Amino acid sequence: MKIAKLSYAAAAAAALLWLQAPAYGQGTPTPEISATSAGISPDHPEVEAGLSCVDCHSVKLDAQTTATKVWLSGNYLKYAAGEGIMGQEDVKKAIVEIIGGRKAKRTFVLGTCINNTPLTTTADFTLDPQTMTIYGMHEKGTTKLFHIQQNPRVSLNWHEEFKSWGKVLCVQVVGHAVLLDGNNPEFDKALTECVPYEELAAAMKIEPERARSMVKAGMLMSKITIDMVTVNNSAFEQKGFRKYQRWERPGAPQQTKAQE
Ligand code: HEC
Q1: Candidate from 16, 26, 33, 60 with most ligand 1 atoms within 8 A of CB, to mutate
Q2: Taking the domains of the chain in order of start, what are their residue ranges?
Q3: What sign does the dihedral 56-58-60-63 (CA atoms) show?
Q4: With respect to CATH, is domain 86-249 assigned 2.30.110.10?
Q5: CA of 53 to the centre of ligand 1 (A)
Q6: pLDDT one-digit tens code per residue, 61-78
């Protein structure tokens, strides 16, 4: 609780400094800074302990120059720029093969963030390939759900334990989440079509209908619209493609694409 209070205090302090910023900058707004901006100059306004750069600055991150971008499409190893890139439909198909589709599930690590403080949590999720949406079932009242309520931007990762350089498989998702409660018709539809609640029923040795009403009464569903998926899969190389491939939802928010 103490931590939460502190970060609210920090946020309030940041907001106050924001308002006061013109006093430092002789009327100029707080400048946008580059993601590689490492330190602050001696004449930088004083920064109180507990504040981070992003409390006052918006950070420019174009994702065009990062290593990932080079691995995806640049001049890299045996590939000339633009070569070895799979078509979007094929990347999507590969993602569905790796993650599984409706009524399958994978244990992902889910990253959420509030007040500039990230948190990762492990949970089971199911992919609906038709909409490229991910669904998870969660006990009510956990920290990650409060994070999502305040900040829908999330990232998920599923990977195999890395064994050697030639055998890597991992999937990184960037998206935005909403929480659905049991009264929401979308909850009901996703439960019927996607979420394998029947497994829960079998584990608990109860009728599937009973499991359904239990989860509707006691749990929240996260619905994560995928904006971008980056896959690192050594097996792609055997088919003549780069091991890094990316699927992007057409029209996904530009800021999402800046995440790497
Ligand atoms: C409390 C709010 C606040 C925080 C936190 C903060 N800055 Fe600043 N920063 C400012 C303001 C206001 C200016 C504009 C100063 C001016 O125009 O005189 C500024 C200016 C800058 C500049 C351009 C001029 C200079 O002084 O170098 C850079 C670069 C910069 N900040 C980087 C950073 C970095 C990196 C961090 C994190 C380590 C950071 N800032 C944290 C408020 C903040």
Answers
A1: 33
A2: 2-60, 86-249
A3: positive
A4: yes
A5: 7
A6: 766 667 888 999 999 989
